[in-house]
Amino acid sequence: TAGASSISDSSAIVESMESNPDGGCHIYRNGYYRNGISVVEGILEVNIIQMTSIQTTESQAGNSLVDFVVTCQGSLPTDVCTVVSDPTCQMSKSVVCDPIIISDECLLTIRRAFEEPGTYCINITLGDDTSQALTSALISVNGGEST
Known about the structure:
147 residues; PKAT_KLD; Immunoglobulin-like; QNR71 protein; mainly beta; 58% strand; PKAT
């Protein structure tokens, strides 16, 4: 509505709207406003502290399993995502996300399967409702071993 304005009961808050040539309206509000801000501690840091190849049986010979032991600082995560990419970290080969429950200390083991030997870039992201933190590593998978 062009030229409409109103004055509020409490204090001198003036609200006006005017037509805009681009078809929309702009609302101008003058006065005092209050809002609350909550500061939350997020997940501050993620580290891979150990990578261990898991010995597989002959029936599982197609996949190499690797356990990643991960720690974090700050708030406790509620989910973990693992992205396995080519060695340049540019082309994603697989993405796996799982919910997790951590009770008091941020220390978890993530097991991932690699279909064939090779060098991979792995990104591990821990997240909660307010934050995310990422760590990356380059891993070489040689059949039953990884470095």
